[in-house]
Design brief:
single chain; mainly alpha; Arc Repressor Mutant, subunit A; three-stranded antiparallel β-sheet; 6 helices; about 60% helix; about 10% strand; globular
């Protein structure tokens, strides 16, 4: 049986849902944070500045559903839950890390372009 040819440029292509998930800013930052090591919820919230607990919870659930993040709950008091990238999730580390670095390295150029655009 042959593998279907996916094309995210087609409106009907189901692979668009995966692209939409990984193109989300919170997804990118969570994957970048988890690329370093397994983290607890509070550690993730600290590393990903500006994310609310609700959005972090929703994004982690979506990533777990998509097979990108694994959640490990420990039967301890107080309860402890840790998150880590799965093998599939680790395949996103390099491309999303590169996007993060690009944003940091080119921010000033982008800001200058915005300023020039806004003054026209």
């Amino acid at each position: 049986m042959s593998t279907p040819e996916w094309n995210v440029m087609l409106a009907t292509c189901p692979s668009r849902t995966s692209l939409a998930r990984i193109a989300n800013k919170w997804t990118a930052m969570i994957v970048i944070a988890l690329s370093e090591r397994r983290l607890r919820f509070g550690e993730l919230r600290e590393m990903v500045g500006g994310i609310s607990g609700k959005v972090l919870t929703e994004t982690l659930r979506d990533l777990e559903r998509d097979g990108l993040v694994a959640r490990q709950a420990y039967a301890e008091i107080p309860p402890r839950v840790e998150y880590e990238l799965t093998d599939l999730g680790r395949t996103l580390s390099a491309p999303l890390g590169a996007l993060g670095r690009w944003a940091e390295e080119h921010y000033e150029q982008v800001e200058r372009a915005r300023d020039a655009y806004d003054t026209r």
